[in-house]
Amino acid sequence: MMQERVENGALIFDLDEPLADRPVKDIYLPNAYCSILKRVVSNIFSLREDGGLDLVLATVGKCKCDGMRNIASWLERTTDIPILKVENDNMNGVGFPISRSGLPLLKKMELIVNSVFAPLPEGLTLEECAPKCGFWGVPPYDFAILELFPDETHIFGWTRCMENKTPADIEMECDVDTGVPTVFFTQSFCQKSAFAYNLAREHGGLYVEVDKMMSHSTRAKIEAFLEFNLGWRGKR
Amino acid sequence: MSAPSPILLDCGTGYAKIFNLEDSTRAIVPARRFIKTLSEYDIKASTGHNLSSGAGARVNELVALAEGALSMVDEPDFTVLDFGARDVKYVQIRSRRVAGMDWNTECGAFAGQVVELLTRYFDVEPENLPADAPRIPVVCGVLGMTSMFDMISNGKSHEEALAGFLRGVAFNCETLVGRPDRLYLSGGLCDNKAFVSAFTRETIPLGRFVLIEGLRKIYSENNI
User: Fold this and answer.
1) DSSP H or E segment with residue A43
2) Within a domain: residue B115?
3) Do B27 and B11 form a contact (C-beta atoms < 8 A)?
4) What domain count does chain B have?
5) Cβ-based neighbours of B51, under 8 Å, separated by 6 or more
6) What is the pTM of this model?
7) Cα separation of A85 and B26, whole Å?
8) Does B122 lie at the interface with A, CB-CB under 8 angstroms?
9) Is B64 an 8 Å CB contact of chain A?
10) Which residues are B93's β-sheet partners?
11) Binning pLDDT at 50, 70 and 90, where does residue B141 land?
12) Do B50 and B90 have their domain in common?
């Protein structure tokens, strides 16, 4: 269906991502709510105001958090925004070489996020490296957090599932390498924080939650974790 | 004009803690005042929220806390909590090595500056607060203060409400550090008897210069 629309000239936007010249309007959801879903809803209304919105594909299954299911129902009930609820329960993985590569963590995350719509760049070589540490979680609202980590950081959690094209695979989402110092990241006010919090306790990792932009304290906390565990003092 | 004094600096949100390398004296001044007198100092090494640039070698706050506590506590296993103006952090030591750490990074509303503000606002002496006040649940500092003011509007005294708030804050700290039998405390609230006594386990104040002691150790070992 998406392919047909694209061939007919439609543009597809990833509503999770910032859209150029469309700042997030923090007026549609409660203050204490996931900043990524605030951005999604703001982007929906912003695109509609400009008359540029034909359809919202709302992912509402086990493949995502519970938030979008509720938001999609609200939008369906109270607005004329066209919503199509979809679920992705695919369990046939395609692999996750990016997550285990030695590319900078920020680059890894960009490649995985962009792979939703675009194939990997031609000529890209992905060499697996041994993990020095791990980053577990969803793609963060503020990618700056990823710059704190060494390149030999493996990606775990939902982002790995995303690369594997199995976003509903809870077993894979909970899998981390035992003994690898891992930061368990969650957006503040996200249902997945229950996972992150308890997996961090189970594996002796570091639980980190961030609402929007990373604070000085969060930066220093991650830096300390990496310094204590790896002797790593950042890319200086 | 005299040469700038060489110092080690822990410049937190509320106060700057200073160690003068020339005469080994220590000082505490409000951070807002210290920042205006920067030219008087030659900062050899620093830690803390403020002065993140141009302030000598930087040392992470948790690293300074761990090193400082290790230089002040002889036990092989212990936990030290630093209760700062805007946040709370701790390190857990096992066999004289860092085995755990955490830092509450989001809600500054249950940290030291709020306790200090409330104490001034109510104009109470911490040692006069009741020791048996019921604990107020402090899910976050703001919600905790809402509960505290509800208690007052329901007829409780300001002292009892504030003491209950402090016990709620102490309870959160104990949850953060994993409820050890004994807890070492760092930071400005070491001097606040009501806060120290709000903990439900043996709590030993180490004072306000723990991070400075860590800086001294790291600096003397040329490890920065």
Assistant:
1) helix A35-49
2) yes
3) no
4) 2
5) B9, B11, B35, B38, B43
6) 0.84
7) 64
8) no
9) no
10) B78, B98
11) confident
12) no
Give dist(CA B100, CA B62) in Å, integer: 11
B51 and B84 inside one domain:
no
HEC sequence for B133-169: CCCCCCCCHHHHHHHHHHHHHCCCCHHHHHHHHHHHH
Range of the domain at B150: 76-208
Mean pLDDT of successive 10-residue stretches along chain A, which has 236 residues: 80 89 92 91 94 90 90 94 93 96 96 86 90 96 94 97 96 96 94 94 94 87 94 62
Instruction: Indicate the helix (H) or strand (E) that contains A37.
Output: helix A35-49
Decide if B203 contacts B69 (C-beta within 8 A).
Answer: no
Are B62 and A224 an interchain contact pair (Cβ–Cβ within 8 Å)?
yes
Q: What are the boundaries of each domain within chain A?
A: 2-86, 105-230
CA A156 and chain centroid, separation = 11
- Please, which residues bridge with residue A155 across strands? A135
Q: Greatest CA separation found in chain A?
A: 55
Look at residue B216 and tell me if it is in a domain: no
- Picking from B59, B80, B103 by the largest number of A CB atoms within 10 A of its own CB, the best residue to mutate is B103
- For residue B104, list chain A residues with Cβ-Cβ distance below 8 A: 217
| Distances, alpha carbon B193 to alpha carbons A205, B79, B185, in Å | 34, 20, 12
Yes or no: say if A194 and B35 are a contact pair by the CB < 8 Å rule: no
